[in-house]
């Protein structure tokens, strides 16, 4: 089933609140959604936002969206979401502890990978497909966690002012 995907980087605002910001270089858009712009930036505690909930709960989430989901959002948020969108699968990219290389429960995620589309998976194997999709998203997020962890470790180990090759 075709879908779109975006990566959102986690950052903090001046008040210390977490938000996710769209990484415009990490997006795959397979479905035309004329009114979908993707959030440029949204606080993770914004109501009804699946990617924010996945960030806060630190787990992959799949959610079917009601037909009138646009009515759930504040107008400013609703303008960024395609009304024809019917499902979201969001998976946090968790930070890893530098010593153990396992999830660092006290650290906020690096960001959130979000897959979404206009046709809800259906049929008798629907639950299996959703479970499989969540598993693939989680594996992909794990790989991103490892890559970002290695990048952070290599950046921290470079001496200040060292020339970059």
Q: Would you give an account of this structure?
A:
By secondary structure, the protein is an alpha+beta fold. A six-stranded antiparallel sheet has the order 3-2-1-6-5-4, with helices on both faces. The protein has three helices and six strands, in the order βββαβαββα. A hairpin with a 5-residue loop joins strand 1 and strand 2. The mean pLDDT is 84. The protein is globular and about 50 Å long. The chain starts with a strand and ends in an 8-residue tail after the last helix.
* N-to-C series of helices and strands: EEEHEHEEH
Question: Which strand order does the major sheet show?
Answer: 3-2-1-6-5-4
Low-confidence stretches: none
How far is the first residue's CA from the last residue's CA?
42 Å
- Could you give the count of β-strands? 6
- Biggest sheet features: 6 strands, antiparallel
Q: Considering DSSP H and I runs of 4 or more, what fraction of the residues is helical?
A: 25-40%
Roughly how many Å is the radius of gyration? 17 Å
Write the layout of secondary structure elements.
Layout: E1 4-12, E2 18-28, E3 41-43, H1 50-57, E4 61-64, H2 75-78, E5 87-93, E6 111-117, H3 126-157
Antiparallel strand pairs: 1-2, 1-6, 2-3, 4-5, 5-6
